[in-house]
Amino acid sequence: MPEIEERYPESLMNTFGPPKLALVRGEGAHVWDEHGKEYVDLLGGIAVNSLGHAHPALVAAVTQQLQTLGHVSNFFATEPQVTLAERLLGLAGREGKVFFTNSGTEANEAAFKATRKTGRTHLVSTLDSFHGRTMGALALTAKQAYREPFEPLPGEVTFVPYGDVEALAAAVTDETAAFVVEPLQGEAGVNVAPPGYLEAARRITADHGALLWVDEVQTGVGRTGRFFATDVEADLVTLAKGLGGGIPIGALLAFGEAATLLQPGNHGTTFGGNPVAAAAALAVLDTIEADDLLDHVDRLGKHLRDGLAHPHVAEVRGEGLLIGLSLDAEKAAAAVTAAQDAGFIINMCTPDRVRLAPPLVLTEADADAFLAAWPQILEEAYRS
Ligand SMILES: *Cc1c(COP(=O)(O)O)cnc(C)c1O
């Protein structure tokens, strides 16, 4: 049998480019490739594997739920789904309602449809944003390369520079249905909102009767050292990536009047809120609490950010374990390759930007191993 990497392009559509590795096994923040080489996984399935790989609590929850009741469709209620909705609203500390999906882009589609029920169609989004790849979410995503082949996209969308309060105030009008924004722009290479930006967004949208929609697909579920990256009270909040710890699940949380925008028949999903996915998410929430992971993420994130300083590193950004850094040259791809050779998985966001989004359970020893290897990784990258 040829190697997995050789078989891949023969049967898989070429949407992602050639795979970097074929992985066969994982444990904690470690993964192994098909040749038995071990890596510290500092990408965590793109901010998804909150509990790392093969976490016993996640394995037990999924196994037990699948043995009990695996799937029933949304004609029926299940206990894990209801409990998960209650827990998420409890964490938000507000009255609201939840709609479950299977992914981030679907959570955003649900939110997009909710905004249409306001009777308004104008939306405001930010430059450098990423909200997903389905047509609605793509309409809100700024990146031209992703958008252009698929235009016309739905909606009337105005894009404003991220963090610019004046531009936002000028863009939001009495015709605006919603402003959608990430608390930190993950895909862009981790841009952190300037202090007061989301508070200003809350004020501006409220002044015009528009909804504030915070996309926490990447930043939510403890990633930043807080369960939600922002305390600002949005009308719509979307979650996905880290929520299921690797089992696909997303959620739209809607608060106040926004919670009743979607009415019977307005939206649906076959898989969304499936009991196995909900049980996985409950295991993630339980473990974050039981193991004090928010504190751990906060501390380890600071430690990592401090340790990444280097003459070739122009800037280190981020909160908790969502970390972005800019190199002083277009060496991100070379750094990813050099890191992989050294046994570390990291991610390139743009030609000069690198992102880390490791499991929330990353150990200090693994973080230190990476920091110790980092100068050598950069040296290697800049030599190529
Ligand atoms: C990843 C991401 C999405 C899309 O999620 P998928 O599960 O890939 O559809 C949407 N918004 C943000 C902020 C993301 O980081």
Automatic annotation (TrEMBL):
Kindly report, in one word, the top-level EC class recorded for this enzyme: transferase
Q: Sites of the modification N6-(pyridoxal phosphate)lysine?
A: K241
Q: Name one GO molecular function term.
A: pyridoxal phosphate binding
**Note accompanying the cofactor annotation:** Binds 1 pyridoxal phosphate per subunit.
Gene Ontology CC annotation, any one: cytoplasm
As cofactor, the record names: pyridoxal 5'-phosphate
**Record note on quaternary structure:** Homodimer.
What more the UniProt record tells us is: May also have succinyldiaminopimelate aminotransferase activity, thus carrying out the corresponding step in lysine biosynthesis.
Entry's family note: Belongs to the class-III pyridoxal-phosphate-dependent aminotransferase family. ArgD subfamily.
Identify the PANTHER family for this entry.
ACETYLORNITHINE AMINOTRANSFERASE, MITOCHONDRIAL (PTHR11986:SF79), AMINOTRANSFERASE CLASS III (PTHR11986)
Per its record, how is this protein called by name?
Acetylornithine aminotransferase
Its taxonomic path starts at: Bacteria, Bacillati, Actinomycetota, Actinomycetes, Propionibacteriales
Which gene specifies this protein's sequence? argD
